[in-house]
Amino acid sequence: MNILIVGVGGQGTLLASRILGNLAAVSGYDCKLNEVHGMAQRGGSVVTHVKMADKVFSPVIAEGDADFILGFEILEAFRYRHFLKKGGTIIVNIQEIMPMPVVIGAAEYPKNLAEILKSENNAAAVDAYSLALSAGNVKTVNTVILGYFAKKAGIPYADMEKALGLSVKPKLLDINKTALKYGYALD
Amino acid sequence: MRELMLGNAAIARGAYEAGVKVATAYPGTPSTEITEIISGYEEVYSEWSPNEKVAFEAALGASMAGARALVCMKHVGLNVAADPLFTASYTGVGGGLVAVVADDPGMFSSQNEQDTRFYARAAHVPIIEPSDSAEAKDFTKLAFELSEKYDTPVILRTTTRLAHGQSFVKIEPRTERELVTYVKNPAKYVMMPSNAKLRHIVVERRMDKLADDCGELSINGIEYNDKKLGIVCSGIVYQYVKEAYPSASVLKLGMVYPLPLKLIRDFAANVGEVIVIEELEPFIENQLKANGIACRGKEIFSKQGELSVNIIKKAFFGASMPESEGDIRLPARPPVLCAGCPHRGVFYVLNKLRTTVCGDIGCYTLGAMPPLNAVDSVVCMGAGIGMAHGFLKASPQTKNIVAVIGDSTFIHSGITGLIDSVYNKSGTTVIILDNSTTGMTGHQNHPATGKTIREEDTVRVDIEAICRACGVRRVVTIAADDLVGLERAVKEETSIEETSVIIARKPCELIVKGQKKPYRIIEKNCKRCRACLKIGCPAISCTDGKMVIKSEMCVGCGLCEKLCGFGAIGVMEANELL
User: Fold this and answer.
1) Which residue in A31, B84, B192, B232 could disulfide with A24, CB within 3.0 to 4.6 Å?
2) Is the pTM above the cut of 0.95?
3) Which CATH superfamily includes the segment(s) B2-215?
4) Which residues of A touch B337 (CB under 8 A)?
5) pLDDT tens across B384-422, in order?
6) Which helix (H) or strand (E) holds B155?
C-alpha cells in the first residue's frame, strides 16, 4: 500500500508518517518512508511518501501509484492528485492555508478545489481541524486524518492504536487516542 | 531487533557499532542528523566544528592518534574540506577515517547540484554508495574496514532520498576498539615535497590494488535476469531500477570509484546491451567508455535533478507519466521565513531603503523571496562579504550596499572576508544576523552560542570582539526588531568610508518559543492599505479583502503592529483567545 501525505510545513505530516511506519512494523510488512527536511519545511509544500508491502524497493511513490493521498490542506491535496492510482482514495482535510503568493496578492487561491476533488477523484472530505479541537488539541489534526484513513483502508482499529502508542509521547497518548477514535468513527 | 531508521540514523548507528571514537561535522542538509544522533551515544566524542575544513582536520587528527573517526558534511561542505581531503589521501590513516558526503540531486535544500563522486576520483580515494538504511549501516562499517586495510580515507556518498528515507535496520552491538598506537612517522604524515613524492607512489599503488580487489567485495554484485539488457547502477537508483524494470539484469555497484572493471566486463559480455543509470553526471558511464566497455547512459537520462521509477519506465517502455493539472493554475507554496522570525524586520528595512544586498546561506536566504525581495546574491557560505567587498572595489561610487550573513555562517567562513574588507579598505558594511543558532538545518549550536553539541556550557566566542580584533572600529549591536534603529544604522554605516559591522540580534523564534499573546486586526481602524502584508508573515493574510491574523500561527512578535499607521493591529485580549 502506497500512502502519500501532503500538506504545509508545520502541520504534523512527519508524525503521521512515523505512525504509519510503526503500523507497518506491527503488521509485519516491509516499509519505506521518505520525507523532506531543511529549507522546504519552512512553511513550504511538504510531501511524505509511505510505502508498505512484502518487499519495497523505491522509497518514493511514483506519479499515478498512490493508493491513498492524505491531504492535510486542500490546495496541496489538489497539487498532488496526479499521484493517485486509478481507484485510489484521497482524504482531504477541509482547511485552506494561504501560500505567500496569495497573501501578497500575486496569485489567487483557486475556488472549488475541494468540490473538484470530490467529483473527479471521489475524495472524502473531513473537517479534521474541528474534530481535533473537540478532541482537545488542534495539533491532533494528523491523528484524526489517520483515524479516517484507517477506517477507509480497512485497517483494524487495534493495530492503529498500537502504532499510535509507539509513536507519540505517553502524556499525549490519551488525547491522540480520542482524535484517532473521532477519525475512525467517520463514514 | 528490527527498527525503522532514517538513512542518516543508520549511518550514525553504523559508525557507533564500528567503534568510532570521534565524530565531527558542520551542519548541512541532508547530512545534519548523522552527527546529531551520534551525539546521543555516550561512547563517542562528537562536535559541531566551525566549518567542514576544521571538521575534516579534527577527524584526520583523531585518525592519526589511532581512533576510528567520522566526519560528515553536505556536498558543498566538501568544497570547504577539499584541501585536507586531497592530502589526507597521501598521508593515509591511523585509525579508520570515513567522510560521509551527502549530495542533493534535485536541490531540495542546496545552491547547486554538484556530484561528489568526482572528488573521490580527483583525490584518489575510494567512494561507496548505499541504497537503503540497512546498507547505510553496513557500508559505514565496511568503510572503516576498507580505510584501515588500504590506509586511505573513504568517502561514503549519500543522496537526499537515502539520507531522509527510512527503512528497516537490524541493530547490532558496538565493538570497542583500542587505539592504534601512534608512532611518529614523518614520511607518512609530513607532506613536504620530498615525502609527498614518495607517498604519491603509495597512493597510486593503493588505488590499483583496490581496483583489483573490489570485484570481490560483496557490495558489488550481479543479479542476472533477462539478459537482453544489463543495467549498471548504484545507490538509490538501484531501488528505482528494481521497481521500474524488475526483469532486467542488474549490476549493482556499491563502490563507484575505483570500479570493479573485471566484474563489469563479465557482466557486459553476458548481456545484450549495457545501460548505465545514474543521477547527475555520467561518472560511471565515462569510466566504462574510457575502458572500452560499450554502454549508453546520459543520451537517455538527464544530468539534471533526480531520477525516478517513472522516468526509468518511460525510457524503456514509453509509458506516459501522469502530470499535474494544466487547466487550473495552482499558486506555488514556496518556503517562507517563520512567523516571528527575527530576520524579517532587517529585510523589510533593506527592501525599503533599496539597498543592494550580497546575501549568504541560511534561513535568511529566504529574504530574497517576495514580498521582501531584499537579496541580490547568494552563492556559498561566507560569499556575501567577499562579494560586497569586490563590488565596492569595482564600483566605489555605490554606497547603498551591504553584506548580510548569519552568526553561524559568519563563524564558518565570514571572518576572512571581513578581514579582506578591512585590510584592503573597501568600507563594506556587514550585517550579521545573530539569531543565536544554526537555523535552517534545525537549530544546532555553534561557537558563538556558548553551548556544545550536547548543550554543555563552553566558552562563548564573542562576535563583537572578533569584528574588533579584525580591525573593525565601528561595530553596532541593535535588536533585530528595532526597525527605526536598524534603518538609522544602515543609512549611517553605508554612508561612511570605513568597514563597519551591524549586529542585528534576536534569538530564533523557534528556540525561544515566545509565549506572547497573539495579535489581531482591529477591524474598525483597518484602512486596507496592506502595509502589514509587506513583511511576508505567514500568519497574516488577506481573505475576501479583509486582513486576518491567524491566532494559532501568530507568535506575538509585534512587527506588524509597528508597520500599521492606523492603530489597526493590537494584542488580542484574554477574552478573545480560544
Assistant:
1) A31
2) yes
3) Thiamin diphosphate (ThDP)-binding fold, Pyr/PP domains (3.40.50.970)
4) 42
5) 999 999 999 999 999 899 999 999 999 999 999 999 999
6) strand B154-159
